[in-house]
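Suppose you are handed a protein chain with no further information: no name, no annotation, nothing but its sequence. What can you learn? This example shows the usual starting point.
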Amino acid sequence: MADEPVLARLHFGREDAERDVTEGLLLRGGFLPNAAYRAALTGRKMLIIGRKGSGKSAVCMQLMADGAGGYTGRVLVTPDEAAGEEIRRFELQGLPGDSAKALIWRYVFAVHAARHVVAHAKAAHRKRPGSVKALARFLKQNGESGGDRLVDRLAQGARGLQTSLSLEAFGVKAAMDLAPSEGAQASRQLEVVEQGVAQAFADLGCDAVHGPLLLMVDQLEQVWSADADSISMVIGLLLAAKHASALYRGCVRFVLFLRADIYDSLAFGEADKYRGDELRIAWTEQALRDLALARARASAGAEVSAEWLWGEMFPRTVAGEETPSYLFRRCLPRPRDAIQFLNLCQTIAWEQYGRERITEADVREASLRFSQWKVQDLAAEYLVAHPFLRSLYPLFQNNGYVVTRAALGVRFDAAVESLREVFPAYAGALTLPGIIDVLHSVGFLGVRRGNDVVFVGDDDLPVQPHEKEFHVHPCFRAALNATSAIDLQHFEPHHDSYDFVALNTHVAQGTYGLGSLRNSVSDRDARLVAQLRRSCHSILAQTGRAVSLTQDARVEVTQRINRVLDEVNGIPVGAAPAYDVDDQLLTAAHYFDSLAAQLLASGLDEGPGGAGPVARRLTDEARRLRRAAGGSYGGDGSSGGL
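A reasonable first move is to predict its three-dimensional structure. Written in structure tokens, the prediction is:
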């Protein structure tokens, strides 16, 4: 409708690429071409690797729909559970699991290539070479002429490779039953088929004119179960794709979309040969901003600008931070999370409250709800590989988001027995180094390196034994109530409101002399206030010098002490007889001692520039305040031990 508010039309797409394509948003400009798309399109990379939600399937869907690249055909293989089970249980006597699984994948590729060659020759060539006719006969004789169900093709291929394929179309009259093993016989049969496909491509000689076949495999995580057969299934796929790519040369291009945790779990002898074929999808904040703008334009109109999106439709800032930075820092760096977060902001503003603009309050509300989604989604994402992940969350709940190895060790020691009872099969992984590695690898924890906090994807280096400080990702903090760097209590004064100006002026100008401070109640109060102020500034100075203390923790301590200073600047000395300045000093002293204890308990005491010196300064100043409140004076005539 023409008069429909823009916010009602604004939509950032679906979480899955398949529905994005169906509803048209991806094709209307909502897709952002990235390095993975360009590398797959041109054939420079065969392995597109990324974690769940990183946009692998969006690249795949775009390649299937795109007219670019000069491809004469596009085939997408997405195994369902039935097809996956067929591959996992495929075995051949005389061959290890990886090699057997590679043969069944090679058969699938050969059949797809054969069907493509036969259809292409019929459509684009006036004369069909004998090799193409032979392929057509082979497909018919082996029941591969029609039907698109992968599970049927796998079942047919498995039966043929485990017994015998009909190879009369290639001039092979008898079954190859003289092979020394079932595996050797299957390999020989498959070589005959593959050579027939390669010969047909060569006889047509049109790959440079008409372009190659693009053959893609996606959604393997749907049939992954982290067992030995699943590992062999994926290793076999890699072996088969490399073999077929070399055999068919430029006539068939292969692109495999693999989830990062699956690919990284593989261990096989030829893994180093695939490094040049890999491309890992990585998203920066700027790339997510570009994606958000592209999808906003696809849904709300091409006239949408970045200034309008982040200044008119969204608030310019949230909690003092530029809105896109606030949003994209609080989601894992992948499109699915960004899309969910942005859509949630729109849903809360428009559908829940009927607003025509998204407010800061809407974004804050969305932040908590989104964080709650993500702690659930992370556990579900890694349920197969790390079923204990959800049970590790209590180690971080209601604590600071900065945690040291020592502090985490104390928490883990209290829980490890029950964890191993619930997950006995994972007892070997349920060690302190083990859970740190897992939490870092899934993106839950970042590790401090120098002045930076590095999360998975920023750096491929795993956590090192000497690394001591970790940070919970901002995505999960709100749901875990871990929104402060360290768990420091807030200062709670003994009064509600102040109206104080004169005393601060007198203290600042030095109009109170030492004699009057000792002889006047109000002057004594002024001295105590001055003492408290100096104590606060001393603690702030020490905190600023704590260069080994993580910046977030320094900010937390500074904010807490500044809160005390704010209270000092409002103490109504002499203006309210019922007000007890001594009591206020003792309250502050107790608070400083509590902060010191919490700092030391955080485990952040790493040398002269860490939490230890700050904690000692806090306790020193607490003692000074107690002496001052108790009326003791230093022997040199100064007050309060100053």
